[in-house]
Amino acid sequence: MRVEMQGETPIKLWTTSPQGDVPVEDAALAQLRNIASLPFVFRHVAAMPDVHLGMGATVGSVIATRGAIVPAAVGVDIGCGMEAVRTSLAASDLPDSLAGARSAIEEAVPHGRTHQGGPGDRGAWGEAPAAVADRWGGLGDDARYRRLVERHPKVDRNAAPEKHLGTLGTGNHFIELCLDEADRVWLMLHSGSRGIGNRIGSYFIERAKKELERSGHTLPDRDLAWLDEKSELFEDYVSAVGWAQDYAAANRAAMLRAVTGAVAEALGRESLGTGEEAISCHHNYVARERHFGEDVLVTRKGAVDASAGRLGIIPGSMGKRSYIVRGKGHPESFHSCSHGAGRAMSRGEARRRFTLADLARQTEGVECRKDDGVLDEIPGAYKDLDLVMAAQAELVDVVHTLRAVLTVKG
To answer: Would you name the residues annotated as active-site residues?
Structure first.
């Protein structure tokens, strides 16, 4: 860990290791300094080894606060996270070609830019979207959501949360089949709260900015506008974020069920033997926690809860290694670890720097798309995962190392 100072508030970065340092862009450091300058930050800002410039706040940052919360620090993909489960299958149970399994997953789970649940979209329940509305697992009737849309009708406008349940989305969201060190097959996926989380996040970010204007405060970055704990907007936002996090978890669980069924059918099996409980973790969220003897709000933007003994998932770049980890509960990191490898460059830069031939070479041996639509997700656009893992050796222990053999991208 190295320490940067911003006034009286330190920034503690887990970006160094005996194997080498993880590079941190100047813009990300400047963004971290802006965060650390906020008057309600508790003790210090923690930066994970995958830290990089983000929208609103730095991806890979852990921000403990008292008395206020920054909606843009949580972001718009509220509750985005990971789900993984080990099956009873071995590598020898898989066919030589996984093209059929990939097609089955792509058919079972709407991905990419879906049509708001319109014609052609069959949610991950395997039913038409109209039927999905009755299978929210209580989310649709949750008092938190009813209260939210009653008080803030714009949040619900065209959001269609019941139609997005069980859809993957775009960008770095993915579904994978992986093999562990014992050649056991795992299912793993990455997604969040979809359109409704985006609507909630965007709405409250703008409300926070308006509150900032009314208060007369000035900030180096307006995206760091906050909601005061004494305000009604604060309580509405915390409730909305909690609901969106539950929605994201339900979304991932729906897709995992769909993927399990689709892969079993593609392989001609009755089941995949996923009797173990799935590992599930958010990495864009806020939670009330106790650290250093005080109750605080902890915002993890691109970071995972790594409390002592807790299992988490750290995915690598497209078609590469990922890790199942067990947290060590390091107090200075606010019991956190990285959420992945972290981008080394923007999507635009990746498209300028790499070709489709590079993509094919870097994903050799993995059943996945190798077209222009996913070029910005090429492994070379991400940081060195070996350095990232070495830099957080005091934060987590590696339980399993997973190697991707099939990847479905949005």
So the answer is: 339
Length of the chain, in residues: 410
Q: Environment class of residue 126 by beta-carbon count within 10 Å: exposed (0-12), middle (13-18) or buried (19+)? A: middle
Whether 176 has a pLDDT exceeding 90, the answer reads yes
Task: Give the SS3 label for residue 223.
Answer: helix
Other CB atoms within 10 A of residue 401 CB: 15
Rounded Cα gap, residues 209 and 393, in angstroms: 38
Distance between CA 35 and CA 41 in Å, rounded?
A: 8
- End-to-end CA gap in the chain: 35
Q: What confidence tens digit (pLDDT) does each residue in 70-79 have?
A: 999 999 999 9
**For residue 3, what is the enclosing H or E element?**
strand 2-6
CB half-sphere exposure, 190, CA atoms < 13 A: 24
Listing DSSP states for 23-53 in one string gives P--HHHHHHHHHHHTSTTEEEEEEEEEEEE-
Residue 161 CB burial class (10 angstroms; 0-12, 13-18, ≥19): buried
pLDDT in tens, 240-255: 999 999 999 999 998 9
Instruction: Compute the distance between CA of residue 410 and CA of residue 407 in angstroms, rounded to an integer.
Output: 10
| Banded model confidence at residue 319, pLDDT cuts 50, 70, 90 | confident
pLDDT tens digits for 127-136? Answer: 544 445 455 6
DSSP 299: E
Distance CA 32, CA 301 (A): 12
Output DSSP code: residue 343: B
Burial of 150 per CB tally in 10 Å (0-12, 13-18, 19+): exposed
Asked whether the beta carbons of 307 and 279 are under 8 A apart, the reply is: no
- Name which of 277, 285, 344 is nearest 316 in CA terms: 344
Q: What contacts 85, CB < 8 A, 6 or more positions away?
A: 186, 187, 188, 256, 260, 274, 276, 277, 278, 279
Q: From CA 377, how far away is CA 391, in angstroms rounded?
A: 23
